[in-house]
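We emphasize that the prediction below concerns an isolated chain of 267 residues; any contacts that depend on oligomerization or on bound cofactors are therefore not represented. The input was used exactly as deposited, without trimming of termini.
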Amino acid sequence: MASAFTRSASGLGWVWPCALACALSLPDASSLARAQDNSGAPAAAPGPATTATPAAAAPFRPEPPVHSYVAIRRLESTNDRHKKEAWLIARTELHEDGTFVWQVLEEGGSELIRKRVLREALEKESQVHRDGRARRGGLTVENYVFSQPSPAEGGLRVGLEPRRKEDLLVRGELLMSTEGELLRVEGDLVKRPSFWTKAVHLVRHYGRVEGTHVPVRLDMVAQVRLVGTSRFSTTYKYLEINGRPVQDVARDTAILTRAAGARGPAQ
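Result of the prediction step, given as a token string:
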């Protein structure tokens, strides 16, 4: 059983989708707007539930692209059946040339999970940026059929139907504000990452930091053969975005002081 846990926690299991989900770039506003214009789903009939927030009430505000960032990331992973858990805090940097580097600042918990899931997810995220896969899984009309928007949670919900089975395409939905700002993407991967992993559900949250629209949290739950339910999450505390320092970082002084001075060898 221990060897099965090791194999499923490694690259044979679900670490690749964790890395791919972390590396995905934000969709640009024009892609989502074109997606709705070319939606394969019929428009909803007018009625009390739809007239208050029609599609026309959700202009897609253009967003400046994220070319680079420096962020403190906290990664966590747990396995319910084996009662194992681990966490890791790392300084991560995405450079304008697409290079992604990382350096562990603190870590704790299961050594196996730290090595086979958390550290490996960061290393594979570097590979994803190098080989361009981060750009191939975006929310575009080439990848998805988008439904017409419908009111939900004070905003608008848009269904996502992948056009093919491919790594990190998600069957699910996105939630956006009535102003057209992406807030959340949620769904199930349409392609199993390996024999060991039967299903993966993900939720990716977005927010605005110093006026820039960026990912702020990712949660994933995988059903893994012989191992059971495994969970992965990562949160972002940005220090720089597109070369500009983020001002609102003074509260977490201890970890951020060490992160600011972490200029040694990176992975």
